[in-house]
Design brief:
globular; 486 residues; 20 helices; 18 strands
Length: 486
């Protein structure tokens, strides 16, 4: 039975790893500080060491050097909650076999350990980003719920830029505004900022402002005292107070009422608050991270958002591009979600057919990463073979070019259901004889195309932008298709 020494001052992580790795046939020893680790190393030499980078008064680099001085061939894997490429390169140059970040993904840590035990030392650094959701050792990662809460940051220039911004701003206490469409991963980025900050041991409280009614917002944010209003039968602690010392993430903050924005501004400015119906002021030390899919400076000019609150919060800004603007990320995330779904469903789907890759790369992912993830979960479930085929995809995705020109009855059209379209899906009418009517049709086509671009290809918004109903917009598209086929 191969022996592994786990060195980590986080006892819960140590015990979790011991339970998981023992179940996989390893003999695990635990050390909660550098002194215990050195004592254990004197008694017996393990086959591998898992060492936390942040370790009491010592760091993983120092521990790594001490281990390598005595046991130069002993594989050491550095574990840390502070993902930093520079640290990774440094420790691996000093002899670490690999570098993984918390949370650690169970299947991947097993693979890393087995590679370290069987393949020997590496000749050059090879960075990996591994995620662990804290599941029990008998269960695969929960990619459907709260367990899966991180996306990888690598390869894409856009993701690298976001990662650099996170590493830059995280150690400060600056407020951060994250701009991006729904499903693009704004909350994930906020969590990464918190985890890499000095507040990482304190709470991270996420609040969806879009789900707060005007009447409930004050109670949810500030809490209330018993008897503050009818139905207040007990005292309630608000989200801001629960997050004291930590980070508050306010998603879609522009949806807060103007009055609530005023209260929030005063709270942030004065660093104190009162519960609804309360007289006692509570000192507040929180970091604010907000997210919006609407530019707040534009909202402030329209009177929808307080200008002073905007300037108070605008200390640092991160913009997350939509998935359709970074095509190189589509298959990166597709394969990542496929791997996680395989673990969840206990399947072994190894990839995507060329037809599916083409569909993915040409599709406008209006729901961004959230939509992509759900599509792959469903497709993997329906796949019996080695590769995901186009027949396993939702009909509206595999056939979206055709659906664009189909007539949609008025009763089936709602403002809430939209079909993303591509600029390449609208055929350009070829006119052999120039007439006034043809020029009019040509100009109309151009105007509709521009409206679709302006609204990110949301047909309901495009129809409102053009001051026509959505049925008319569909009929116009169908007309262009017929002209093109003549």
């Amino acid at each position: 039975m191969q022996k592994i020494l786990v060195i980590d001052d986080d006892r819960d992580m140590c015990l979790l790893l011991k339970r998981f790795l023992t179940g996989r046939g390893f003999n695990i020893s635990l050390a909660f500080n550098s002194k215990q680790a050195l004592e254990l190393l004197e008694l017996t030499v393990p086959d591998l060491v898992l060492c936390d980078f942040r370790l009491d008064n010592n760091d993983g680099k120092t521990m790594l050097l001490r281990i390598k001085e005595v046991y130069p061939l002993l594989p050491v894997i550095i574990i840390t909650g502070y993902s930093d490429i520079k640290i990774a390169v440094e420790v691996m140059k000093l002899g670490a076999y690999d570098y993984v970040t918390k949370p650690i993904f169970p299947d991947e840590i097993i693979l890393t350990i087995k590679n370290a035990l069987t393949k020997g030392p590496r000749t050059k650094p090879e960075l990996k980003y591994i995620y662990f959701t804290g599941q029990s050792d008998q269960q695969p990662a929960d990619t459907a719920g709260q367990g899966f809460n991180e996306y990888t940051f690598k390869e894409s220039a856009a993701l690298q830029k976001i990662s650099e911004n996170v590493e830059c701003i995280a150690p400060t206490s600056y407020s951060v505004i994250i701009y991006g469409e729904s499903g693009s991963g704004k909350e994930v980025i906020a969590q990464q900022i918190h985890k890499r900050s000095k507040r990482h041991e304190k709470p991270f409280i996420a609040i969806n402002c879009g789900a707060l009614s005007k009447e409930l917002a004050a109670s949810e944010l500030f809490g209330y005292e018993k008897g503050a209003f009818t139905g207040a039968l007990h005292q309630k602690t608000g989200s801001l107070e629960l997050a004291n010392g930590g980070t508050v993430f306010l998603d879609e903050i522009v949806n807060l009422s103007y009055e609530m924005q005023t209260s929030l501004f005063r709270t942030i400015q004065e660093k104190r608050m009162r519960r609804v119906g309360g007289l006692k002021e509570i000192e507040l030390d929180i970091r604010i991270i907000i997210a919006s899919n609407e530019k707040l400076w534009e909202a402030s000019r329209k009177g929808k958002f307080r200008e002073d609150l905007y300037h108070r919060l605008n200390e640092f800004c991160i913009t997350v591009p939509p998935l359709r603007e970074r095509k190189e990320d589509i298959m990166l995330f597709a394969n990542h979600f496929l791997h996680l779904t395989n673990l969840e469903l206990e399947k072994n789907v190894t990839g995507f057919s060329p037809a599916v890759e083409e569909i993915f790369n040409n599709y406008i992912w209006y729901g961004n990463l959230r939509e992509l993830k759900n599509v792959i979960k469903r497709a993997t479930l329906l796949t019996d073979g080695t590769y995901v085929e186009d027949r396993s995809l939702p009909f509206e995705i595999s056939n979206y070019n055709k659906l664009l020109f189909e007539h949609v009855p008025p009763e089936s059209i709602t403002a809430d259901i939209t079909t993303p379209v591509s600029t390449h899906s609208i055929p350009r009418t070829v006119l052999h004889e120039t007439t006034l009517k043809e020029v009019s049709i040509d100009a109309e086509y151009e105007m509709i195309l521009e409206a679709l671009k302006h609204t990110n290809f949301n047909k309901s918004k495009a129809a409102r932008y053009l001051n026509i109903d959505r049925k008319t917009l569909y009929n116009k598209m169908k007309q262009y298709q017929q002209l093109n086929n003549q």
